[in-house]
Amino acid sequence: MALLEVENMHSYYGNIHALRGVSLTVEEGEVVTLIGSNGAGKTTTLRSIHGVLPPKEGKVIFDGKEIQGTPAHDMISRGIAQSPEGRKIFSRMTVRENLEMGAYHRSDRDGIRTDMDRVFELFPRLQERIKQEAGTMSGGEQQMLAIGRALMSRPRLLLLDEPSMGLSPVLVERIFDIIREINAQGTTILLVEQNANVALEIATRGYVLETGAIVNSAPAAKLREDPKVREAYLGEI
Amino acid sequence: MDSIKGSSWQSRLAVVLIAILLVALLIQAVANPGQFVSQLLIGITNGAIIALVALGYTLVYGIIELINFAHGDNFMIGSFVGLTLLAGFGIFAPISGDSGTFIKILGVLLALVVAMVVCGFVNVAIERIAYKPLRNSPRLAVLITAIGMSFILQNIGLVWKGPAQVPFPELISSANIFPGDAIIFRWKDLFVIAATIPLLLGLSYFIKNTKQGKAMRAVAQDKEAAAMVGINVNRTISITFLLGGILAGASGVMFGLFNGITVFNVGFTQGLYAFTAAVLGGIGNLTGAVVGGFLIGIIGSMADQYIGVRWTAIVIFGVLVLVLVFRPRGLLGDRSAVQGGGE
Amino acid sequence: MVKKYALPVVLIALAFLFPLIDPLLEAVLGKSLLFSAIVIAVYVMLALGLNIVIGFAGLLDLGFVAFYALGAYVTGWLASSHFKQVSFSFLSAAPTETVSGNAVPGIHISFWIILVLAGAFTALCGIIIGAPTLRLRGDYLAIVTLGFGEIIPRFFQNGDDLGGFNLTNGTIGIKAIDSPGLPFLPDSLPAWQQFGTLNLNPWYYTILILVLITVYINIRLRDSRLGRAWISVREDETAAAAMGINPVTTKLWAYALGATFGGIAGAFYGAFIASIFPTSFSFNVSILVLCMVILGGMGNIYGVILGAIALQGLNFYLLPQINTWVHRIGDAVGSPLLSGADIPKYNFFIFGIILVLMMLLRPEGIIPNRQRQEELHSGDDDQSITDAARA
User: Which ipTM value was assigned to this complex?
Assistant: First the structure.
């Protein structure tokens, strides 16, 4: 049984029909990526799965249970966490407070400490900045914090929205190394990424989203070979 | 560039004006130190009452950027609840100045607690009915419902106690604590200060150290991110209104006991004073609201003494206008009232 | 073309014929409606003035009463014996000499000139108040205007001793304000030579014409370049600025024009009531006028007129009527609470409920302005987090 199964999901922004029947599955332990151009509905898909923008139609099945319609704040205790687009860290809280907020629904102090140490192992830079106000950090550091904060809930499924946005190529590579590491430690990942090249490099499978609908899905290696995908998303003519 | 230049001459002018005012006050202080110190103490006491209401404005503004116009009227409801409770409901004898000390203390405590609870829930109910459905509407739409709620509460007060001023029982002595009458600081004043301090400390502890307090700060900074980490945004907003209402309730009872009267429209002026305090301190900033409250209290009492009681309201509304025009961030604030700035 | 003008023509004709119909109504209802019609018309003018500020430019003004008060005091100052130190008359319909042949003390200027002066003065005040404040964000601007709305009447209340100078006569107010008039008319038209209290027709036609002028200017403004600039500033100030529209100047125009109409309405009201008190200009007036604009439909001229008539009608007729009914019920049931109730006192309870319900259920008002309707509802969808959190 798949960890996450999305069936024929429709979502709207007001009158705008943003998702027109998206279906996808994520198996336990996978890294699945969603690629597509700007405005194709990648972020909307994540927001709809997460309940931030509840879908009007369709099913979201997580771990065998239907969860569409569950409010966003209840998703984290079910095991879904998100590092949102544009990072959305709490800019006037310190790094430590941000990470603590990530574990907001938990009360096992020891477990939280262990997880914070794990985040610091992944992102040593965050430990150096532990007392710094998050809003004063660089974009890369804020991205690390956003991922770290999501990890603090010990999620079974991590939704990652554009982790490479606005980062230098060197930093992108490092972030993706860490994402691979997080996956290796047992977290399933659904990754939305503009930078299809890198995304398909670390993903098991990929979906191609166009104007609110899935147009192609295949193992990542296969998608990388697909001439259409190469042309549209990998920057080759 | 223009605005930077502009603000520098404005701030220089403001510094000069404030300096002149302070020198004038200093001259008065030297001429009659007893009167000055007494007036300062009254100002601090009034300021405490204002600060508690100002906190309610600032808490709510901090979290949903709404000027909760009905907040001052909730303060009035607090004073009415306290008054009704002290009158005994027919269950027990009215508590008055002649009651025994123990009964008086019990009565004051009971009035405070009940008013805090009632006002807390009134505030939550207002938010649920009038503000929550408009969470995504233009800002002005919510402000207009807030004004509507203010008038509704005021008229509830009008039906409840009528249009005239209603007297509060004199439960706390107006005798001077200090011997002689060179400096006047009454037991009443001491009561207000003594009741305010634990409330302020409690609030500060709640916001800084409890999980719920942290959730409030998180929601104030980014609602979507707060929901993503598992914070129930609506519940957190309700709790913010609850806290504001609790403080307004306490303040309403203290106002009644301190001034000996209350009236159905007391919330309008007091509410505006408190809003001025919140803006002066920097709206959204809790420390700012307290500092602003004490400053407005002192400005008011100084205006009472040295300009004339009938000019006090004009002076304070003048402060409101000047602060909003020349320093909308307030003294300590970090939110900008000017479009496109801050946020 | 015919269809487009039919309704306004009928309405205007009815308005002009109203004084003829009034005696018939008086026979039925037992009282003349002319006095209240005049007050309602004053409020229509106020509401149309505020409509420019709120409806067209989208600025929430909570201190509109300030301009109304300023206009009324201009009449008080320039058409009464308040300033006893001087004696100056100019084209006034009021007598220039006392019975004993002395010059009448005070300033007495023709009402028609005062209307213009009051408009100009309040426009100036609007600019002075607006220039530094209009760059503020909407809710802060609302509070600043509220601050001015509170300061000005309080200043009038305390203005009887400004370093010894009596500017406003304090709480007593300015009394015995001159009646307007058209002294050059033949003696066969005495009611028009000097407006009196027995025949209200001249007052009625004066305010009716003022209202019609206001409506005309409102329509012209709405369809003008300035009107379009207001819409763009209201919808997106940054984008408007990028298109070369100066937001502050644009808003200042709205604020000053609104103030002008408020001031002229005040000037007329001062002359009509003949005595003015600072307590007549409380925050409640600002809210009443705001309620009219919101109930009728922000930005819609017909809606605003309807809102004003409806709410003042409520004040003048419906509430006293309900009061009588409640008293009768009270007498029948034997409840002293009901038979002694004073329902009109709670009118602002109703206005409060109107504000809340309109915003919750129909923010665009009874007769919506199409553009406004879209703006007020567009917000419903663009965010989703609260939908999520609503559960």
Answer: 0.90
